[in-house]
Amino acid sequence: MKLPTDSHAERRGADELTRLSQVIADTIEPEATRVDREGNFPWKGLRALADADLGCLLIPEALGGQGTATAVYATALARVAAACGSTSTVYMTQLHCAHPIQLAGRPEQCERWIPPLCAAGAVGAIALTEPEAGSDVASMRTTARLDGDAYRINGSKIFISNGDVADVIVLFATVDPTLGRDGITAFLVETQGLAGFEAGKPMKKLGQKGASTVSLSFDDCRIPRDAVLGEMGTGYPLLLKSVLKSRISAAAQGVGFATGAFDATLRYCTERDLLSARNRAAQDIQFELVALHAEVVAAGTMLQTVSDLVDAGGEPTAAVSMAKLHCTALGVRVSARCMEILGEDGDRIDLGVERRLRDAKITEIYDGTNQVQSMLVARGLRQAAVIDNT
User: Fold this and answer.
1) Strand 168-174 to strand 184-190: parallel, antiparallel, or no bridges (unpaired)?
2) How do residues 104-129 score in pLDDT, each as one tens digit?
3) Which of 118, 148, 182 is the last residue of a domain?
4) How far is Cα 256 from Cα 88, in angstroms, rounded to an integer?
């Protein structure tokens, strides 16, 4: 499916999206079933994207990116997700690591890590979630204690994408648990040869099986004093800025999974002549497909509009949460409905619809559960009502 809203992004990112189409056709799509079946990290897809100068699209050109608009990035990620969910998660995690470095890093930190992340010469991760903290960031228990010329890191993180293969991790830890949010600080952790650091084995998951998700443990890890990213105690504001892009990423994945499932279903129905007038059920199937197509197009339009709001600045938190909430739920709903349309063939691995459904489910959970997004949208509605009544 080529969404009408794609033209909005293509006007500003025609070269990038043209190159992307070639990478998807040549590398990502042919590898997708194997990556899912074997649970292998999608190195080929990640490197092919970087070789085509498509790594970390939102990063400025001076640091190795393309400096594209958020709408272009969202379109690109949705297309990657439509082809391979695992590759899309690894791809977006590279940006999720590079982006806070760009926002808060000193020049030497940016130059050290961002170009390699863009070029897939380094793999990045971002470590926030903890076993007991979840969405309650203020209850973070991973600590960073100053000890001479180093910080001692103790604690654990969970559900960390790319964590077992990461060369650099943007780690959020607290320098003083009694300070709540004001104690949270970001650090750049270089994993190579780091004593006291351990990444767990990749988790067995429902979907996105090639995108490794692991737990991390820090046991008296000493990292240099200059590994602080930004200023002490500014980790929470940095996190809020970072999640605007990561939630756009999740929303884009939702649109992508819905698109991939729809395209596979439409192809199946067309190849078996299920939409022709000779088939008595043709009209029912047509109506189903038209309704799904309209839903996906509408979600794509929302994604593009919210992406532009992010670039315009201001306070788009509620809008981003609404896009994340709606588009990720759409990915699950459309994929599930497509499986039903396929009937007894719905769970066939070679058709790929069941893979999109499995890949889509986790998007409703990570980058802030959809229940959390609902709370943020509700807060935005209350604030708007107060303003309107003053």
Assistant:
1) antiparallel
2) 999 999 999 999 999 999 999 999 99
3) 118
4) 9
* In the block, residue with structure tokens 């994207």: 49
- Calpha distance 249→235 (Å, rounded): 21
Confidence of residue 4 (pLDDT cuts 50, 70, 90): low
Q: Can you say whether residue 82 is alpha, beta or left, with left for phi > 0 and alpha for psi between -120 and 50 degrees?
A: alpha
Distance separating alpha carbons of residues 86 and 31, to the nearest angstrom = 10
Per-residue confidence (pLDDT) for residue 11, from 0 to 100: 63
Q: What is the mean pLDDT of residues 258-263?
A: 98
Both ends of the chain: CA-CA distance in Å? 45
In the block, residue with structure tokens 């990213």: 229
Angle, alpha carbons 369-375-381 (nearest 5°): 140
**Class of residue 186 by CB neighbours under 10 A (exposed 0-12, middle 13-18, buried 19+):** buried
Residue 276 maps to which CATH number? 1.20.140.10
Question: Which residue reads 């892009």 in tokens?
Answer: 245
Same domain, 346 and 251: yes
Contact 169, 189 (CB under 8 A): yes
| Distance in angstroms (rounded) separating the CA atoms of residues 186 and 278 | 63
Give burial (CB, 10 Å; 0-12/13-18/19+) of 155.
Answer: buried
Q: What is the mean predicted confidence (pLDDT) over 314-333?
A: 96
Q: Is residue 1 part of a domain?
A: no
Helices and strands (H and E) in the chain: how many: 11, 8
Domain of residue 144, residue span: 124-233
Both tokens of 266, joined, read: 């439409």
> If you ran DSSP here, which 8-state letter would residue 364 be given?
G
Selection from 96, 112, 91 nearest residue 27 by Cα: 91
pLDDT at 134 over 90: no
- Is the pLDDT at 386 greater than 90? The verdict is no
Total residues found in the chain within this entry: 390
Same-domain check for residues 322 and 349: yes
